[in-house]
Write a structure and sequence with these properties.
2 helices; mainly beta; 5-stranded antiparallel β-sheet
């Protein structure tokens, strides 16, 4: 059985340089999204990747991304994530940390730093540009959620 030869030059690796990102993507107030990898820029079929920048002391509006899964990788700054029906849960992530956001989870990204830009890489599970901005009355004091397991001990609350 013979296989057709694939033109790897035309259908192989794609490089999208930082100055080639596409800002013509659905936005949420308080953040700037830019697409790096999608069908238009690289021919991607099943995922979307790009950057997110949140200015110092800024926060996004509450939103979700429908059926999409999202992964956020923090490059620099301090990300404070709030989520839930009333944004009643909160956790923080710093440089080198990954954040997973499941489908339909109402959430809000906050730059926890008053003077440093929060820069992240964002990857989504599909090409659909789903951003559903929500009108949520957040709770005043969200519950801190810590990931506790054998390699992530409970934080020392006495400090």
């Amino acid at each position: 059985m013979e296989h057709e030869a694939i033109d790897w030059r035309a259908h192989g690796v794609r490089i999208v340089h930082g100055d080639q990102l596409d800002t013509n993507t659905p936005q949420t107030p308080g953040m700037d999204r830019a697409a790096a990898i999608n069908y238009a820029t690289a021919g991607a079929q099943k995922l979307w990747a790009g950057t997110v920048t949140i200015h110092p002391d800024a926060k996004t509006g509450a939103h979700h991304h429908g059926e999409l899964e999202s992964v956020i990788y923090v490059l620099s700054g301090r990300a404070r994530m709030r989520w839930g029906d009333r944004l009643e849960y909160v956790a923080e992530a710093g440089p080198g940390d990954f954040i997973y956001v499941p489908p339909f989870v109402p959430h809000q990204e906050i730059n926890a730093s008053p003077d440093e830009v929060l820069q992240c890489v964002l990857v989504r599970s599909d090409q659909q540009p789903i951003v559903v901005n929500l009108d949520i009355a957040p709770v005043e004091a969200p519950e801190a959620v810590h990931w506790i397991d054998p390699i992530h001990p409970a934080p020392d609350e006495s400090k």
